[in-house]
Amino acid sequence: MGRLRTLLHWRSLHWKIASLVAVACTAVALTVGLLVHRSTLERSMNDGAAKAEADLAVTIERYERDGREPDGVVRDATELPDELLRRLRDRPARAAETPVTWYDSDPYDPCMWAARYHRGRPFAECIDMTSDLLTRQALDRHMWKYSLVVLGIVVPVSALAAELPHRRLRAVARTARRISDGDLSARTAVKGTGDEISVISATVNAMADSLHGRLRAEQRFTADVAHELRTPLMGLVTASELLPPSEATDLVRDRVAVLRNLVEDLLEISRLDAGAETPDTRPVPLADVVRDCLARTGLDSSFTADAGPLVDTDPRRLDRIVTNLVVNAHRHGRAPVEVTVAGPTVTVRDHGSGFPARLLAEGPRRFATGASERGHGHGLGLTIALAQAEVIGARLEFANAPDGGAVAVLSLRGRQPADTQPIGT
């Protein structure tokens, strides 16, 4: 059904090609038709004029031989058509013996006139051109009819012929869309035709290879840094615990704790990048899990929840996601921070300056908080939350509230009401 809708979409490429072919065929048909019509008309006029002149010459010769006026000859100037009489009078005196012709294009009684002066008086004769007119009209009708028939065949055939490159372009578009959605393994088959579509396909594939290579290099760098820092970090943690109590010791321990959290975040990201994480899903009461999560953060957040369904999810990863969202709201936004559970959806909102436009357009990026007014940090919290949401099959979206503040919405898979029985019953 979708392919049929695409095929019938009037703005699609194959219909534009078909329209271009139709316009080109129509222009060719009009040009050829006009040329044939003009050529046929000129030949008809020339043949008619020659025949009228020949008949007039025979008539004058007969008149000279027999001495009587043949039938069909007009000798009275008042009976001649005005245009023929004007031409007869305007001709030079030296050409008085040469006949003039004029075509009377009366649609019901067409004729070709030929006239000349003989012994000071006009001689004129008219031959019937009805059969010639009917022949030309029949030729025009046949040209129009067969032009329409050919156009009716060429346009659908051209639309079908354009479907093949259009299908290849759609395949390239699907591949580019998959790449933009994060599937860097997507590729388009490149046929050896060497046309522009093949060049586009090869370019998209090369772009995907380049992006995939850069992403893999970034992932390897993150994993290597995290693992290399872990050993000296453990030494720092142990050494900080041996320092005597003092203000300087508290400062050192605080910075070591920050560094330790950073390394743990980097290790978690490296595992998520490697695709080694698998969820341990089970039905859990969403509102209770979120309430316990907020209690563990120790941050002042308002909490609102309905009865709430059971959701099939990994509670450990759900706790990680909600914790990161709440901590991010407190660290980079402003109070009050509101957490709401409505059905299988968790909403975390602060009342700060909102998410930066780049984050809303491209998603969270590691080591980038996006805007100075959102505070300082490593930019890993939202990155981890988004990756963990993908692992458990949830959807995490970021937006800004109309009246100000950042809004993060986590949508999980809820269970049907018949399945939402309390745990342990």
TrEMBL record:
<keyword id="KW-0597">Phosphoprotein</keyword>
<feature type="transmembrane region" description="Helical">
    <location>
        <begin position="13"/>
        <end position="36"/>
    </location>
</feature>
<dbReference type="InterPro" id="IPR003594">
    <property type="entry name" value="HATPase_dom"/>
</dbReference>
<dbReference type="InterPro" id="IPR003660">
    <property type="entry name" value="HAMP_dom"/>
</dbReference>
<dbReference type="InterPro" id="IPR036890">
    <property type="entry name" value="HATPase_C_sf"/>
</dbReference>
<dbReference type="InterPro" id="IPR036097">
    <property type="entry name" value="HisK_dim/P_sf"/>
</dbReference>
<dbReference type="GO" id="GO:0000155">
    <property type="term" value="F:phosphorelay sensor kinase activity"/>
</dbReference>
<dbReference type="Pfam" id="PF02518">
    <property type="entry name" value="HATPase_c"/>
</dbReference>
<keyword id="KW-0067">ATP-binding</keyword>
<keyword id="KW-0472">Membrane</keyword>
<feature type="domain" description="HAMP">
    <location>
        <begin position="167"/>
        <end position="216"/>
    </location>
</feature>
<keyword id="KW-0547">Nucleotide-binding</keyword>
<keyword id="KW-0812">Transmembrane</keyword>
<keyword id="KW-1003">Cell membrane</keyword>
<feature type="domain" description="Histidine kinase">
    <location>
        <begin position="224"/>
        <end position="416"/>
    </location>
</feature>
<dbReference type="InterPro" id="IPR005467">
    <property type="entry name" value="His_kinase_dom"/>
</dbReference>
<keyword id="KW-1133">Transmembrane helix</keyword>
<dbReference type="InterPro" id="IPR050980">
    <property type="entry name" value="2C_sensor_his_kinase"/>
</dbReference>
<keyword id="KW-0902">Two-component regulatory system</keyword>
<keyword id="KW-0808">Transferase</keyword>
<keyword id="KW-0418">Kinase</keyword>
<dbReference type="Pfam" id="PF00512">
    <property type="entry name" value="HisKA"/>
</dbReference>
<dbReference type="GO" id="GO:0005886">
    <property type="term" value="C:plasma membrane"/>
</dbReference>
<dbReference type="GO" id="GO:0005524">
    <property type="term" value="F:ATP binding"/>
</dbReference>
<dbReference type="Pfam" id="PF00672">
    <property type="entry name" value="HAMP"/>
</dbReference>
<protein>
    <recommendedName>
        <fullName>histidine kinase</fullName>
        <ecNumber>2.7.13.3</ecNumber>
    </recommendedName>
</protein>
<dbReference type="InterPro" id="IPR003661">
    <property type="entry name" value="HisK_dim/P_dom"/>
</dbReference>
